[in-house]
Design brief:
With 447 residues, the protein is of the alpha/beta class. It contains 18 helices and twelve strands. The longest helix has 41 residues. It holds the Pfam family ABC_tran.
């Protein structure tokens, strides 16, 4: 800071690692961007525990706004003068002291009372206007969402049962006449969909955009419950199981996993948030996911925070201050990575779950959209290898190299299951699957 706080330009930033970590954990806990990952990885307890640790380590360090810290550092006389200088009556009182005949005592008292009344009224009006804006916004949200049932009820049955934990195999899944509408919409995302997946099967779901592929996965992971119909997991209704158990038994790799505002180490290790993950497991997960190379390029390696919380503040009173800008230049800058690198980082987290978790079901929903064909082929090959014996569901637009290995292909169109079978069976049907397959094959056939 240069000169007086209120009259000069200044720059502030936080260099306390415990405070910035608390800010990152707070963001991870409440930002909607991380919702699916918070639920899928069951991060609630981890975030709470880590936040408490950082708060204890922060101790008595002041976290107030820098303006309040500056005021608190000034003498009581300075603050008293500053407070009086903000009150216009102070100047009137000085005038009376200077010239006794300028105004009578009665007039001064009347002006003071009138001034205080106006001040209280204006403060009240401002406060009520602010509150009114907040209340109107809340009312708008209530009316918008009053008919939306967001809550997914938790079950009480352990999954997998104790008898199955010794010999972990794949999950058995059945959709029975499933129809689903997203909350607040009238159109069916899925309509009367029924299929069975046997334990250990490799399943590929195909269809054009908007056909309902990802919607089926969101029901399976219980981000939503179906509008009608029933989903069975190992013979029991899916809602009967504990949510935390279901999600702990699944490894879900989606198209868009946001980068956590924590270190790269935690971006990988949070695949197993309730375990002490070894350095060897993290290294192996990065090798399998393909993130090892770009992580090594970072100046701090696994300790790098790609998206740090922003605490930098710059206040410029008049002309831009080059000296202050030089101070904050490079502070808390986000490190941009490509879409492919982001997907490889998420894939590494998934491989950690496959390597160390009690996984019965792997779901890969368009996880390679930003990878080149070679990278996609390598990643899917590794996923198939690591989920041997487990049930695996793949969704991808470039499905040719997967469907030939699939035990079951589910072909969706406009929210309906129009075909199911293996590759040879669906090609022989000469229907929607063959049409999609031929479109992809034509790209490799010369005119």
């Amino acid at each position: 800071m240069k000169g007086s706080f209120y009259s000069m330009s200044y720059a502030t930033f936080c260099n306390n690692p415990y405070f910035t970590r608390m800010a990152g954990l707070n963001n991870l806990a409440f930002d909607e961007t991380f919702l699916e990952d918070r639920l899928g990885y069951d991060l609630g307890s981890y975030i709470t525990d880590e936040f408490k640790k950082s708060r204890n380590l922060l101790g008595d360090t002041c976290t107030d706004f820098v303006s309040n810290q500056w005021l608190a550092s000034q003498s009581i006389y300075f603050n008293s003068v500053l407070s009086l200088s903000r009150d216009s009556l102070s100047f009137l009182a000085l005038r009376v002291l200077w010239d006794h005949n300028s105004i009578s005592l009665g007039e001064f008292i009347t002006i003071q009372q009138l001034y205080l009344s106006i001040r209280r009224l204006s403060s009240s009006v401002f406060w009520r206007m602010t509150k009114m804006h907040d209340h109107l916004h809340t009312i708008q949200r209530i009316y918008t969402r009053r008919n939306i049932q967001r809550k997914v009820e938790d079950g009480s049955t352990a999954y997998p049962p104790q008898s199955d934990k010794v010999n972990l195999g794949g999950a058995k899944i059945e959709f029975r006449n499933i129809t689903f509408k997203y909350p607040g919409t009238d159109k069916d995302a899925l309509t009367n969909v029924s299929f069975k997946i046997e334990p250990g099967q490799v399943v590929v779901i195909v269809g054009v955009n908007g056909s309902g592929k990802s919607s089926a996965i969101k029901l399976l992971t219980r981000l939503y419950d179906p509008t009608s119909g029933e989903i069975l997991l190992d013979g029991l209704p899916l809602p009967s199981y504990r949510l935390s158990d279901i999600r702990r038994s699944m490894a879900v790799l989606r198209q868009n996993h946001p980068v956590f505002p924590l270190s790269l180490r935690e971006n990988v290790s949070l695949g197993l948030p309730d375990r002490n993950v070894s350095e060897e497991n993290i290294e192996e997960a990065m090798r399998q996911g393909g993130s090892e190379t770009f992580v090594r390029k970072q100046s701090q390696g696994l300790e790098t925070i790609l998206h740090p919380e922003r605490t930098v503040k710059l206040r410029v009173v008049s002309e831009p201050d080059a000296e202050l800008k030089a101070v904050i230049d490079g502070k808390e800058q986000w490190i941009d990575i490509s879409g492919g690198e982001s997907q490889r980082l998420a894939a590494s987290r998934t491989f950690l779950r496959l390597l160390g978790g009690d996984i019965r079901l792997l779901v890969a929903d368009e996880p390679t959209s930003a990878l080149d064909p070679v990278g996609e082929y390598q990643l899917f090959s590794k996923l198939r290898k690591h989920c041997s014996g487990k049930t695996a569901i793949f969704i991808t637009h470039r499905f040719g190299h997967l469907t030939k290995h699939a035990d079951l292909i589910l072909c969706l169109k406009d929210g309906c299951l129009v075909e199911q079978g293996n590759h040879e069976e669906l090609i022989a049907l000469d229907g929607e699957y063959k049409r999609l397959y031929d479109v992809q094959a034509s790209a490799f056939i010369s005119d």
